[in-house]
Design brief:
With 662 residues, the protein is of the alpha+beta class. It is 41% helix and 20% strand. Strand 13 and strand 14 form a beta hairpin.
């Protein structure tokens, strides 16, 4: 026969619905707490409790220090008693011995009652939190426990309570205590008083879960719910699509004679549900979303500011049905499709199209094509305004007129979009690809402006070039960018505007010039007609001259390219020779109209022979510092010679004297 402890333990397990180990740990912790309180033990002392589930006997073990003479039995034990537990115990060591007080079972039951209840309550709350956290988004069932103006309290499994706030209730539903209801587990929050469970019957996912439970095709994945728009208690629209060929998605949801959908309608307190087939074509999708109204035409405007705009034209007798009570049908269709829907009757749409043709410049091309139809449309509209009957043929004329105008504008906008894309491609092709790899911070633009541009979506130089060619005002409209910044950006981009081909040409030209310079000097004369190369004279006849600066007053035809001065220039200046020049096709020498050119400064080595004999290393160590002499070279056209004019400073007078070497 089982004792009372075992019976009580099993009763707690059944009542609390907790694991056996959780209850046992709570009891042991309560026994340890009762022992500490009974003997006033320190919190730092290690204490364990052991409960025999068969007999209900409680045994307490405490860690004590081994001493020769016990002074405090709570923390000390004699060596003799310690070796009964541990034969290797020594003085000063620590051993765990049994220290169960007499009549501890009755005393512990009195003291540990609150601790046991608290531990079991905490374990119960943790179990509830873990259990319901896994069911978020699913339908749960419960019994109404309390109803007030703010919320409904529902009893759930695990002895948990859920709250259904007023905004999550379906308008018009009335519940009484002990009513069993189903709701969506919307959210679970942890709180000091246990998990806070929020329930909902107004959420659109509640309708989704009901459809999954009632329609096997949805549950098994043959039919998919693409979108749901719901106004709780009044009307809902559901867009479904078949994932397998041969399956009717709408028929599967409705069921034979509507048996499936009627079960959901009863659960939602007679809420009307429209099930439509989803379509990838927005025109067809929007027309079906406005059911049960019949639609004449749907015209999309994806370039409208804000949300995407769709103009829907319906027959005059279908206008109120398409809009619905208080605009409910149109509102649900807009939320279901994600398009902003503008519903018009056929005469209203024809009048708007006629007004646009007559007033808006965008419709000028269409107005010319519809010149013959406009008088007829005006006549039909006037007839309608006067209240006279309109024939079906005349309604057909209005419908075709509206369709041509709206679709003609759509085609025109499509052409404009394609032209804009083509222009964008051409501009991108004109920008070097390397520019899209250069960060904007490394372009040379001020750091403040570069940071603003990078933050505005222009991380590279190529992106900035593209936007500057497309619309420079877009850069100017950025916060912190003004006229000064635009001027700086344009100046820097102008320097970086070389295409890849131009950069290759420049690099090739520079390499060729460098190679020619290292081999032998060549002077190039630029004239308006052509570029003429000047062949250098032999070394014994002509001195090679350093680069010169052209006089400011010379005309472009008289400009001359710089001539290179080598180390032999010093000797050539002492004994100038005749300069051989190339003659152009017109038969005159370009030097005949040149009066003078000037070298600002160049170095003339004093000991040319030493410089030729010594190698480069000894020259760096032994050669004296070269002195700079200022000379002015002039060309005498009469004698056809180059004259060097030296300047020496007079001692202490600050005046210059001229010394001519011919």
């Amino acid at each position: 026969m089982k004792n009372e402890f075992v019976l009580a333990f099993n009763e707690v397990l059944e009542e609390k619905q907790l694991p056996r180990e959780v209850i046992l740990q709570a009891l042991e912790a309560a026994m340890v707490s009762a022992y500490r309180k009974a003997v006033n033990a320190s919190g730092a002392q290690h204490i364990e409790a052991n409960i025999d589930l068969n007999t209900g006997k409680v045994t307490i073990y405490a860690e004590k220090e081994v001493v020769e003479k016990v002074q405090d039995p709570r923390t000390e034990v004699s060596l003799e008693d310690a070796r009964k537990v541990d034969p290797n115990a020594t003085i000063g060591g620590m051993v765990v011995v049994e220290t169960t007080p007499e009549n501890f079972g009755r005393v512990a039951a009195q003291t540990a009652r609150q601790v046991i209840q608290q531990r079991i309550r905490e374990a119960e709350r943790d179990e509830q939190l873990n259990y319901f956290s896994k069911q978020v988004g699913e339908i749960v069932s419960g019994v109404v426990q309390a109803v007030n103006s703010q919320a409904i309290t529902v009893g759930l499994d695990k002895k948990a309570e859920g709250i259904m706030p007023k905004n999550q209730q379906v308008p018009g539903e009335r519940f009484r205590v002990h009513d069993r209801i189903r709701a969506l587990l919307l959210e679970v929050k942890a709180s000091p008083r246990g998990p806070q469970i929020i329930l909902s019957r107004a959420h659109k996912n509640f309708l989704r879960r009901l459809l999954e439970n009632e329609v096997p095709e949805i549950y098994h994945g043959m039919v998919e719910i693409r979108s749901i728009a719901r106004e709780p208690g009044q009307r809902s629209k559901v867009a479904v699509a078949a994932l397998q060929p041969g399956v009717d998605p709408v028929g599967a949801c409705v069921g034979i004679r509507g048996v499936r959908i009627q079960a959901i309608v009863r659960e939602l307190n007679d809420e009307k549900i429209d099930v439509i087939e989803w379509s990838a074509d927005p025109t067809v999708y929007i027309a079906k979303a406005l059911s049960p109204a019949r639609v004449t035409g749907v015209y999309l405007n994806e370039h409208a500011k804000g949300a995407k705009m769709a103009t829907v034209v319906v027959p005059e007798d279908q206008l109120s049905l398409a809009i619905g009570r208080d605009g409910q049908n149109a509102r649900l269709a807009a939320r279901l499709t994600g398009w902003k829907i503008d519903i018009k009757s056929l005469p209203e749409a024809a009048a708007d199209a006629l007004h646009k043709l007559q007033t808006e410049p965008e419709y000028a091309a269409l107005a010319q094509r519809e010149t013959d139809v406009v008088p007829q449309v005006e006549q039909i509209l006037a007839k309608k305004a006067e209240g006279r009957p309109v024939t079906p043929e005349e309604y057909q004329v209005l419908s075709q007129f509206v369709d041509r105008v709206e679709r003609g504008l759509f085609r025109q906008r499509e052409k404009d979009r394609q032209a804009e894309e083509e222009r964008l491609k051409q501009i991108e092709a004109s920008i070097p690809k390397a520019a899209f790899e250069i960060p904007i911070e490394e372009s040379g633009i001020s750091l403040r402006f570069a940071t603003l541009l990078a933050g505005a979506g222009y991380p590279t130089v190529g992106d900035l070039m593209l936007q500057m060619q497309l619309d420079p005002d877009a850069i100017l409209r950025l916060e912190g960018i003004g006229a000064k910044a635009i001027a700086e950006i344009e100046e820097i981009l102008a320097k970086l505007s070389l295409t890849a081909e131009e950069e290759q040409v420049v690099a090739t030209t520079e390499a060729a010039l460098e190679a020619e310079t290292t081999q032998q000097p060549v002077a190039v004369i630029e004239t308006p007609a052509e570029v003429v190369e000047v062949e250098p004279a032999p070394e014994e006849e002509v001195a090679q001259v350093a680069p010169v600066e052209q006089a400011a007053e010379e005309s472009p035809a008289e400009q001359i390219a710089p001539v290179v001065l080598e180390e032999e220039a010093g000797a050539a200046l002492e004994a100038p020779q005749e300069v051989k020049t190339a003659v152009t096709e017109e038969g005159f020498s370009p030097f005949e109209d040149m009066f003078s050119w000037r070298v600002e400064a160049f170095e003339v080595p004093e000991t040319l022979e030493e410089e030729e004999e010594e190698d480069e290393r000894s020259m760096r160590k032994k050669k004296k510092k070269k002195k700079k002499r200022y000379v002015e070279l002039e060309y005498d056209p009469d004698k056809n010679v180059v004259v060097a004019k030296k300047k020496r400073k007079r001692g202490g007078l600050g005046d210059w004297e001229d010394d001519w070497d011919l």
